[in-house]
Amino acid sequence: MARQQTTPVCGGALDGNSTVLSRKLSTEASVVPPPPPPRKRRVALKQKTLNCSRIPQGLVLGIYSSEKDEGAAQFTGAGDAFDRLVSGKLRELLSVWCALSKCLLSELKHNGFGSDFYCASCVQEERVHECVLDFPSVVVVGLGKKNAGVNDQENWNEGKENIRAAVAVGCRQIQDLEIPSVEVDPCGDAQAAAEGAVLGLHEYNELKQKKKPVVTPQLHGSAESEAWQKGVVYAEGQNLARYLMEAPANYITPIKFAEHIEQRLRSFSNVKVHIRPESWIATQQMGAFLSVAKGSAEPPIFLEIHYLGGTNTNDSPLVFVGKGVTFDSGGISLKPSSGMDAMRADMGGAATVCSAIVTAATLNLPLNIIGLTPLCENMPSGKANKPGDVVRAKNGKTIQVDNTDAEGRLLLADALCYAHNFNARAIVNAATLTGAMDVALGSAATGVFTNSSWLWTHLYEASILTGDRVWRMPLFEHYTKQVTDCPLADVSNIGKYSRAGGACTAAAFLKEFVTASHWAHLDIAGVMSNKDEVPYLRKASFEACFASLVSQDYVNGTDQEEIRTGVDQCIQKFLDVARQTECFFLQKRLQLSVQKPEQVIKEDVSELRNELQRKEALIQKHLGKLRHWQQVLEDISVQHKKPAEMPQGPLAYLEQASANIPAPMKQT
Q1: Is position 409 annotated as part of the catalytic site?
Q2: What's the CA gap between 659 and 34, in Å, rounded?
Q3: 14, 99, 309, 367: most buried, per Cβ within 10 A?
Q4: Domain for residue 397, yes or no?
């Protein structure tokens, strides 16, 4: 089942109607309204409204859809309570809008509500007046079916996802109204509501002069405050990862990344952060990691974090390993320039791992965790890896670097070897590793490769609760053979058939550096950015680039359809020019078949030569584009057009066409 749709009814487009609705609500608030009070009292009420020192707040309330198509919708407990405060007018007004708009999300803006409100009793007036002053804007959001739970087909808790999505939409509506604070209905699951609110309001705008107003979400009521706070911590942890990934690469270099995480963990006495420099990396014999880092002027960093939250600090820890390429140009195997700016997010694995530890420390989870993140840039230079180079990993295995854009697995190889020093209970690594994973699963789920059914079960159960779905992928020997069948070294950093099963061969490569019995590799390339699939996450600033280039190692580095389209267009233009030139020659041949004076023939020949030069320049232009695409195709071993099918030279067709030109035209 798809996520519950939550689209506002009375946003900016319907603001004019909302004022009318407010006055309808205010004037009908009592069955028997008394006559208007004296003018002095009327002014006094207005002054009371204007001089009130309370900060206006928005309110997000939830409503469940009916189990039956024609049934009435049902408010949550908080929604019912608010409706009673306004004498049932919220339900009445919502019914009108549901009939008109066929949806369950309405915004009620009560501008001027207090100054026009009269009722039969002074107590009722004060209660409603106070309510309106506190919440000048109320957003009602649809939560779907009340009893929605785990959906076995979708592999998530549908009720939790509906709450996250609905609350996020409601909070954004309040933000658009520039109201600085919003109280949120717990909607039966305060943790999910908090996650939706905090995630939905997050947006990276650090470097913009014009920013959206900051909105602080709070729990409406106090019944589930502990669960609400837990949800806030979860969401803030995820937002930390989003912040690191969305920031420009010149703001988040390896050392700046490490310092940012160290600053976030400084206040925890049970956390130790080690920022290991390049000299330490060299002493650890991490040759694969250093081979990638040496191409950049930015020095590499190995960030090591120890969180000791267990009752016994000597208990075996969970070890998290994250790929930390803070900018990935592809190295000598350079990526296409289009969308390369998105490669600032290629440290998504490191951001995820570090944010998870920050969250665990904040929640004081009773377990020990170690985080390992090799951080560097992958850049082309005179010192960079070259295709065909052989490097040695920490465990002594040699690696043939067949493509420098498959760099992430080189970092992870050394980090995974180092992870075995800690007698780990389990090792989990996360990386934006392959575009092939995006091709396989898209943005629906993270691909998980694991040698442990125990570990898989824990990951799967957690994913259902969080909405971050996972899907188990194969670690067959079939893929291992494709990386170990290598002419120069023990393993190759790309598969023997690089296009086939790219995510699986990448995982098979990592497996060569793992001996632990409980290990999982999470390929998060497909889920690292939000396009429009997750309603409680805003689109990432780099979202558009991922249609053709996702943060990844080598394997389908460029979208295959884009390549084929580019090649076909170049070939078609080339052939068009050749055919046009051939027709031109045939036309001239017919003209020259008629007897002409010698001077006229010379003029024709001169015109023909000029035309030939123009056509040759055009062909060279299209050949340049074609050669670019051919190089991309060769880089990723895509078989498209055989060389024999392509023109053998820029003048091949012209030479063939000129074979039948009469002798007088060939004379100088």
Answers
A1: yes
A2: 105
A3: 309
A4: no
Identify the helix (H) or strand (E) that includes residue 370. Answer: strand 368-378
**Cβ 266 vs Cβ 361: under 8 Å:** no
Chosen domain end from 555, 582, 615? 555
pLDDT (0 to 100) of residue 613: 72
C-alpha distance from residue 494 to each of 65, 485, 579, 639 (Å)? 51, 11, 41, 17
Residue 151 lies in a domain: yes
Run of H or E including 106: strand 106-109
DSSP per-residue string spanning 165-216? HHHHHHHHHHHHTT-SEEEE--TT-HHHHHHHHHHHH----TT-SS-PPP-E
* 9-59 pLDDT, tens digit each: 333 333 333 322 332 333 333 333 444 444 433 333 333 333 344 677 899
Same domain, 305 and 379: yes
Question: In terms of pLDDT, which residue wins out, 31 or 206?
Answer: 206
Considering the entire predicted model, what is its pTM? 0.71
* Spacing of C-alpha 553 from chain mean position: 16
Q: For residues 565 and 513, state if they share a domain.
A: no
Backbone angles phi, psi at 490, to 5 degrees: -65, -40
Cα distances (angstroms) measured from residue 21 to each of 17, 104, 432: 6, 16, 50
Q: How far is Cα 563 from Cα 557, in angstroms, rounded to an integer?
A: 11
Q: Can you read off the two tokens belonging to residue 575?
A: 């052939």
**Does residue 551 share a domain with residue 577?**
no
Within this chain, do residues 548 and 587 fall inside the same structural domain, yes or no?
Answer: no
Note whether 465 and 531 are same-domain residues.
yes
Listed residues 493, 521, 555: the one ending a domain: 555
Same domain for 37 and 184, yes or no, is yes
Mind listing the pLDDT tens digit for each residue in 641-656? 433 343 344 344 334 4
> Token pair of 653, please?
């067709």
CATH number for the domain harbouring residue 152 = 3.40.220.10
485, part of any domain: no
Catalytic residue among 409, 511, 538, 615: 409
Spatial distance between the Cα atoms of 403 and 388, rounded to a whole number of angstroms = 8
In a domain, residue 27? The reply is yes
Rounded CA separation 124/432 (Å): 58
Instruction: Output b/e per residue, 397-434; b: 16+ Cβ within 10 A.
Output: bebbbbbbbbbbbbbbbbbbbbbbebebbbbbbbbbbb
Cβ contact 361:393 at 8 Å:
no
d(CA 275, CA 359): 20
Whose structure tokens read 């998530």? Answer: 156
Where residue 350 sits, what CATH number does that domain have? Answer: 3.40.630.10
As a whole number, the mean pLDDT across the chain is 77
Question: Pick the catalytic residue: 335, 344, 394, 588?
Answer: 335
* Nearest of 266, 290, 200, 276 to residue 238 by alpha carbon: 200
Q: State the alpha helices, DSSP H only, in 10-88.
A: 15-27, 39-50, 77-85
**Residue 602, exposed/middle/buried by CB under 10 A (0-12, 13-18, 19+)?**
middle
Q: Which of 518, 332, 319 is nearest to 422 (CA)?
A: 319
Number of domains into which the chain is organized: 3
Alpha helices in 518-596 (DSSP H): 560-592
- CA geometry: angle 55, 57, 60, nearest 5 deg: 170
Residues 284 and 142 in one domain: no
Question: Looking at the structure, do residues 567 and 532 belong to the same domain, yes or no?
Answer: no
Owning domain of residue 324: 248-388+403-480+503-555
